[in-house]
Amino acid sequence: MDLKSRIDLTHLPEHIAIIMDGNGRWAKRQGQPRVFGHRNGVKAVREATEAAAELGVKYMTLYAFSTENWNRPKFEINALMTLLVKTLRTEINTLNENDIRLEAIGDITKLPSQCYKELIEGIENTKNNKRMTLVLALNYSARWEITEAVKKIAEGVANKEILPEHIDKRIFENALTTKGIPDPELLIRTSGEARISNFLLWQIAYTELYFTKIFWPEFRKEHLYKAILDFQSRERRFGKTSEQIVK
Ligand code: IPE
Ligand code: IPE
Ligand code: MG
């Protein structure tokens, strides 16, 4: 049986998050500049998005640019931003055809104005789509997000809208940029690195982590199927015993 038909569609992760890593190394391995890897990463984005939507996954979050990525050479940052504008322009139609809504998390107002503009347009043009939400993490980092949430809550306390003793998980979650989006059940990182790199720290408290050696530009539908099958073979206990789960 092929990988896709082995997936239990009644037990799909509702939200999959991906740290798309390894573009630079993939390019270098074939004697090409790092930017070549980023350009070839677009096809992988398409494949992952399409595969997830076809299966019935409801949310997919892609880590596209971290706050730390501003420390890269200027040339590479510019190339990434140009690629983002170009991709948003060409892919919005495909998102609409596939009934996929675009969203973004991160400090997007600090992106170059052209990127910000394309992004807002893309979000606006796809806002009524229902099949899946594709969330781009852009100029995102979890510590930035958590710090912003703390500021918001502190303001609420200062304005007497929130009592300190009422601050709970729900109030905190509503102050995050992922408000309204369920926590990811599955987090995939490509390229063989086994770290989180400041991604969704609050939201992945109970997420299943999946690391693959595949470099992002090589990522295809089959790799997503493999990750989901691995996820489906795991027992999620949430602190309970195995006996309590298998009933
Ligand atoms: C991921 O690939 C893309 C971004 C972080 C924007 P990298 O550019 O990090 O590629 P490697 O990890 O250096 O190979
Ligand atoms: C994480 O990848 C960020 C994105 C995929 C956008 P990095 O390549 O920037 O992470 P580190 O520096 O290897 O931890
Ligand atoms: Mg990397």
How does this model look, in words?
The chain is an alpha/beta fold and 247 residues long. It has a single domain, classed as Decaprenyl diphosphate synthase-like (Undecaprenyl pyrophosphate synthetase, 3-Layer(aba) Sandwich), CATH 3.40.1180.10. Helices cover 44% and strands 15% of the residues. Strands 3-4-2-1-5-6 form a six-stranded parallel β-sheet, with helices on both faces. Helix 2 crosses helix 3 and helix 4 packs parallel to helix 5. The mean pLDDT is 98. It binds 3-methylbut-3-enyl trihydrogen diphosphate (IPE) (2 copies) and magnesium ion.
The major sheet is characterized as: 6 strands, parallel
The total beta strand count reads 6
Tell me the helix content: 40-55%
Query: What's the gyration radius in Å?
Result: 19 Å
Which ligands occur here? 3-methylbut-3-enyl trihydrogen diphosphate, magnesium ion
CATH topology: Undecaprenyl pyrophosphate synthetase
- Work out the count of structural domains: 1
**Major β-sheet strand ordering:** 3-4-2-1-5-6
Number of helices: 9
- The residue-averaged pLDDT reads 98
Order of helices and strands: HEHHEHEHEHHEEHH
CATH class: Alpha Beta
Q: What overall geometry do the principal axes of the alpha carbons give? A: globular
| Derived structural class | alpha/beta
End-to-end separation:
29 Å
Low-pLDDT regions? none
CATH superfamily: Decaprenyl diphosphate synthase-like
Q: How much of the polypeptide forms β-strand, as a percent range?
A: 5-15%
CATH 2nd-level architecture: 3-Layer(aba) Sandwich
